């Protein structure tokens, strides 16, 4: 089985990939399809080759968008999607379901929407606590045997779950939130990944826009923006967190890079086995992010950044209590998960 890095080399991919969720999900009104298709086309032309989507995003709309937008380019890229978490059309809400029959059904539907006969990487989007991880991963392993997917990944899992899963079937990548102000993988997951030579794919490396300096006041966000329900962006916590941003921005100015580029360079400096997948709704921002591919930070700069926005300094947890209940990732003891 080819490794994730083997496939990235095959398609001449930079280490920075593209999280496509933002175009259809999570951050307010979806980007109109004609504009989103132009943006995907521009992303490919500027060099992106690792595209990440999921059944959940836009209630399958994001997969359909990529199916259209990447048509004719399939052999030139690494295409990743996710299963096990979807919007139930009857209930109208998110449902986590890791049963083998569900994962198979979702995979086959994803292949149709993405207009391809296989996925390079297919993640279990969330651990279903009602289904042993071995059963879910075993089902994905059978999809590998059938050629419908090339490799199995996991998203938002703990080190313990990763080890159990990897014993059932080789895991090619683990996706987890990792950014200067979100260092949860450092608790145990990174060590577990490295013990088995498993790359970490870092989502939200720009802190959901915070590290880019794009969130100064949540009142400017659309009512449907998911950040309204995230504790770090609450009326109490956001001002405290913004006070931490000045030193970070000062470093970016000293280095002559943008805050977004510095945030990505920091993630990349944590190891060659870490692949950031920033998302964006703008081709200009995508180009800015991709330019971070060639930025190398001096050890003293990394050490300086490491001392900023530590878990003890950041106000609020990643998720609300309800959201936190859906993930398996280790949390810092001091993390706050309330919405206050």
Automatic annotation (TrEMBL):
> Which superkingdom?
Bacteria
Keywords attached to this entry = Oxidoreductase
Gene3D superfamilies linked: NADP-dependent oxidoreductase domain
Start and end of every NADP-dependent oxidoreductase domain?
Answer: 16-307
A single Gene Ontology CC annotation of this entry is: cytoplasm
| Annotated segments matching region Disordered | 316-340
Tell me, what is one Gene Ontology molecular-function annotation carried by this entry?
A: oxidoreductase activity
Provenance organism: Halomonas korlensis
User: What PANTHER family does the database record attribute to this sequence?
Assistant: AFLATOXIN B1 ALDEHYDE REDUCTASE, ALDO-KETO REDUCTASE YAKC [NADP(+)]
Regions crossing the membrane? none
The protein depicted here goes by the name Predicted oxidoreductase
